Amino acid sequence: MKRNLALRAVATAAATALLAGAFSVGALNSAQAATKTTVTLLSAGDITSLNPSTKGSNTTYNNLAASLTGFGFTYYNNNAELVMNTKFGSMKILKKAPKDFQLQYTVASGQTWSDGTKIDGVDLLLTHVISSSKFSKAAGLGDVADATKKPAFDSLGYGGAYDDNVVGEPKLSNGNMTLTVKYGKPLPDWELLAPGPSPVHALSLMADGKTSLQSASANAAAKAKFLKDFTSKNSANLTKMGKIWTSGYLVSKVDKDTNPLLLISNGGFIISKYVNKDSMTLVRNAKYSSGPAMSTKNPIKTVVIKVINENTAQVQALRNGDIDILYNTNPTGNDKIVLAGMTNVATQIKVGGSYSIFHLRTDTAFGFDDPYTGPFAGNSQRAKDLRRAFLLALPRVQMIDTLIKPVKADATPLDSQFTFQGTPAYNTITKSSGVDIYTKGTQAERTAQALALVKKYYPTASDTVAPVKISFLHADTPLRNALGKLVKAEALKAGFDVIETIPADMFADDTNSKSKFDVIMHGFSLNSVSQSAASDTYKTDGGNNAWGWSDSTLDSILASLESEILTPAQVTAKRLAADKIIMANAWGLALYAGPVITAYNKDLKNIKPAPVGNNITWNYFEWSY
Amino acid sequence: MDEIKKSTISTSDKNETGIESKETEGLSQRQIIVKRFIKHKAAMASLVTLIAIIVIVYTSLGVNIGTGRFKISIPGWWPYKIDQIDPEGALASSCNGGVTGCPTLDLAPPFLDGDGIRFGGHPFGTDIIGIDYFALVMRGAQQSIMVMLIVGTLGILIGTIVGAIAGFFGGIVDAVLMRVTDMFLVTPTIVIGAVIGFRFGNLGVAPLAIMLGLFAWMGLARFVRTEFLTLREREFVDAARVAGASDRRIIFKHILPNAIGIIVVVGTLLLSGAILAETALSYLGFGVRAPDVSLGLLISQYQGSFGISPWLFWWPGTLIISIALCVNFIGDGLRDAFDPRQRRHISMKERRKARELSEVPS
Amino acid sequence: MLQYILRRLGMMFVIVFGASFLAYNLQAYSSDPLSGFGESTAENKEYLILQMTRDLQLDVPPPIRYFSWLRGIVAGLWGDFNMGLTRDGLPVIEILAIAIPVTIKLVITATFLAIVLGISVGMITAIRQYSRFDYSMTFVSFLLFSLPIFWVAVLLKEFMAIQFNDFLVNPTIPPIAIVLYSLVFGLVAAGFVGGARLQFFLVLAGAALFAAALLYFASATQWFIEPSLGIFGVGFLALCNAAIVIQLISGLDSKKGRIAGFGVALVIIALYYPLQALMSADASLINVFGIFAITISVGSAIGYFVSTIDKRVYLRIGFFTALMSTVPIIVNRFMSEFAGYMNSDAVNGRPVPTLGQRNDLLTPEQIDNFWISGLDTAVHLVLPTIALTLISFAGYVRFSRGSLLEVLNMDYIRTARAKGLSERTVIVRHGMRNAMLPLTTILVNDFAGLLGGAIITEGVFAWQGMGQLFNTALRSYDLNLFMGVFILSATLTVLANFVSDLLYGVVDPRIRIRK
């Protein structure tokens, strides 16, 4: 008996000490960090192509590599401002008439590709080839509209604003350093249309079957040949190049045997190793001259992009130093504390380029077959009242307090569909858009108002009896699920029986989810800051208008935002008008601008996450240890 | 030649049979089995634990089955529900710098720096919005146990029927059934999970369990078939046939009772495999999905919080392990009970074949 | 027999065909590739949808689309094999060619370890059935059986990578930890050896003291930063190996066995310094094989010439002692690179990674150095190997225990005992050998299953092998890729089933394959 006791005591003590030892975190080693010259970035998904403009399952991840290997006329900085990259060149409006809008791009001289070939205006022409369906058709490269005539350059670019508005072919001048492009009408976001440079000589060489870097003269000749093929619309030669462009850049690995012509870069780095779905290694491009100069003190010499799909694995990898930067766009309070608690890691928390929003269904919308007949359907007073009641019952303050403030302490509910907090436009718009009925008083008062509205149509409703069944669609993430539960609990008090619909795939084309929701909570992320942003979401039968909203005044406001070059004040006024219409119809309500956590090796300097564009890598030239 | 001395290695093969026969004198087959099972301490302890777990899990939250008019609702004794938000529970008592409510469970007595043994309002803490984590874990366990039972029942039922028919009739019936079995065998469980998750994701856990059950019977079918192949050649089957018994009667009254041992044993393995398969599928996002809860889902949701609120990670894990462990031990006990001298041993290979399902979680 | 084999092979085609049709359609209906565009704000969304519909033939119903996929496979008959392109446009076969070696590399060590450890432990538990050790191992193996691997992975990363790397900053073990770890080690060792109470405590004390001494030594000399076995460590291990080999093959009582085993061990120790010359920085795998060839031939020769009768027994002792004693020499060589590896820029003082299969930051010189790149692979394998071993170890323990128990109940064992053979001979020669037979069939099945990939393990440890391919293919509606992985693993499974059925008949002649 005694021995047993002693044994047990020893075992208990052993277990306790083991646990204690295991849980105590020792000091971290940063002694050697001064010599570090490498950065390991994280990619949450597979990198699938060395050419981010070809079709692939995810351009976001391909762009991560592209952002390190290419530089063009503009980039977004950490304040979401579009910066003109004067090292590469400049652009200006040459002519601004209602039917003749000309833009002029001038490439700065003295830049070369990584193989030493001079960069000039000819390198900009490929943008036209891969974006203009008219050129494709005229040059006999295929017909974008005809599924049987697949274009030789099978790009993601056809059908965009460039394709819709460009007139004729771009013209070179000034010793091929200047390019002039003509459009059929003024384009408000013209700065975003700047063509990007592509190493056309490499394309031309590869079309000729070359598999190694060539001499300067051969490169120049290849470039001249491309120009000739372009101007003469040489179908055969362009088709050969199109084949390379479309599938040649799809490689499963990069190693010693890879054709170096595929890797030519004008960015700070050049790809040296790559294994499909696994990792990519990039080294310094010695001939980098197309962007801001690299930091001179302890700059980065090697960048690795590591693909890690699994969330917890990413966090543990950061803690162990296996990766250096983690960019979490969908953090919970727990995530923040985990990341902030790591002694080897620094964190930055700021609003990213995404915002969360509630949209209420009003009608059968673009892309749906089943007619929508739920409680929010139509423009009757009853539908409007019920919609308003639901929006009133959204516990936005509680949602922010419980789930967003633990991440970003100064978060507040977002009150506009078109602008973010912290901008002058936001204050102007929210002051008079009519959003104040959702911000006045306490949530209890608003829920009571909501219940009163519901009672008008459902007399049995009370804070325990919920006669209005609402199907509530949202994505399956921890944050969304938690938000959803808060909505459900509060809406119940206003007479709404909220049934959460959480499909595996939120926009899947099946009857369970897509056509059967009354309200959707989702996030929009912005790829760019533009005047016409999001108009597809709000205009009648817009491609993203899955809620069936339709209002002719709103349509005309959106149309003018899309096609007129306006002053900031004019834009604000139009957006205010649009927000007012949405408020008056009780169509939807914004929730919050999503905070993003950037956690990174604390020895790494000048990490400045940008809300749009290349979030992390936009200023790699400034990085250093 | 070298002289070989007697080694010190010992065995326990000492007249086992003799002891056995004395002990079981005058008892019916069933009594012998029950007696042997009761003597298997680990299995008995596991059985008691498992029953205790099931009772706690189902009574704490009560049972809610079905929807609408067909809803059966039995309230439980636990004060919190899985959709009940307790704001004080979450934010007021958060600890470790975390945003989740701390567990109020404390088993350390005061002299070990604890506050004495207490359960408190939220013994397992709360999640990020103040939902009681004990309630969530119980709900998760309900779901996981339900998956286990549905998969087990279906797997045993189909496996026994297919195996029995194939083994009893033999010939072309056997060949066809066995090749169909092979076909099911190579279809990965995860694909089934993906299809169900996509098409019927929000119908709850039952369709998932049923589909998994439809793909869980192959191992058992093979065993039952082999068993039937040998048993049908035995004298008592001939005797029954001569006496004019129908095929159905021979299968159900004569052969099946003799094959029950292997069915029970392989069945328990199927059960523990099912709970792990559910866990793995939910983890991969192909199983139970929010707003519903399962143990695997809870782990995958909260594994990221491991560093700051480890209890969110430990509790569901502990429950999964406990249930699977109990079922495994019960299976071990049943094997010993049905098979005292281990003549007809269920090897690990056979075990694993029987739990083809659990091949997902590696 | 031939007819049987041909019929089974024919059946296999039918099964794989049926299963692939089923799988193709299940997967095709399991998601919607166009759904990704729901959230897209691209202006040219309509074109993108058109493009995808065209490329993935979404306008063709899946059952018909299946046959266009099948055509590529069947075309393999006339050398025109085509598994199609992935959604990203890469040939499926190229992707598989990258993934297969990754998966093999990941699972092979773990499977090997699980088999060796599992069978050893399983056989010991069978020999000592119903002992304390048997009960605790039964518990442990059931426990491991019940562990979700992703759960284990999180814990392993936390404690064996992150915390261990933190520990390496100042690798001294506090005395209390030394005491506890030694006691635990002593308990395990005593459990293994067993015996009466006195022996149990003697072994416990001995093993604990030994472990304490080792830990103290490691702590005092900063061994974890600059690990090395040295000639003493290598020598000690060689002698231990020799003892185990002798006990298993001839018994430690055999004088000639002792001469052969320990003699070989001593020769290997003597070869320690000369062999270093073969392990320079520019060595390669060939050198390693060379070293093994030298030691094994020396060892076998010694074994062969030790005795004039029963030469094969002593040859085996010499062979296995040499084989197993050479391993520490090689390991020691890898260890000597550890300090340099750990302090290099790429590793930055944290040698145990939580994921990945290689360090992408190693310099070309480091990659070219066989020892450093080997070390790099080894540290990347540590965590996933432990995780996989823990999970599959349990299966082998239970299997070999049951198998040996079954054999030990056989009449011929009774006969062997009755004719006065020593217990060692009965168990090793008659028991273990026969218990191992059914194992061969399992191994076939297991290795076939391996290629299917360890879906979760590969995911949490970011190894891009077959399991990951399968997972991503399922998620991203990459039908061709999905089918590529599927057809490979299905074929192997069916083939392994067939082979193990055949082997069953070969191994156990009592089982006749019915015509």
Features:
heterotrimer; A: 625 residues; alpha+beta; Dipeptide-binding Protein, domain 1; Dipeptide-binding Protein, domain 3; 6-stranded mixed sheet; 5-stranded mixed sheet; 19% strand; globular; disordered N terminus; C: 515 residues; mainly alpha; 20 helices; 75% helix
Task: Give an overview in words.
The complex is a heterotrimer of chains A (625), B (362) and C (515). With 625 residues, chain A is α+β, with helices and mostly antiparallel strands. Among the domains of chain A are: 74-249, Dipeptide-binding Protein, domain 1, CATH 3.90.76; 353-594, Dipeptide-binding Protein, Domain 3 (Dipeptide-binding Protein, domain 3), CATH 3.10.105.10. Chain A is built from 18 helices and 17 strands. Chain A is globular, with a radius of gyration of 28 Å. The termini of chain A are far apart. Mean pLDDT of chain A is 85; it is low at 1-34 and 509-513. Chain B is mainly α. Chain B has one domain (29-65, 73-80, 131-347): MetI-like fold, CATH 1.10.3720. Helix content of chain B is 62%, strand content 2%. In chain B, strands 1-2 form a two-stranded antiparallel ribbon. In chain B, β1 (62-65) and β2 (72-75) form a beta hairpin. In chain B, α11 packs parallel to α12 (295-302). The longest helix of chain B has 38 residues, at 247-284. Residues 1-20 and 341-362 of chain B have low confidence and may be disordered. Chain C is mostly helical. Chain C has a domain at 2-96 and 450-507. Chain C has helices at 2-30, 45-55, 62-74, 92-127, 132-145, 149-167, 175-193, 197-220, 230-249, 255-276, 285-306, 311-336, 338-342, 364-368, 370-408, 411-418, 423-451, 455-460, 466-475, 479-507. Classes of the chains: A alpha+beta (625), B mainly alpha (362), C mainly alpha (515). At the A-C interface, α1, β11 and α9 of A face α2, α4, α6, α7 and α19 of C.
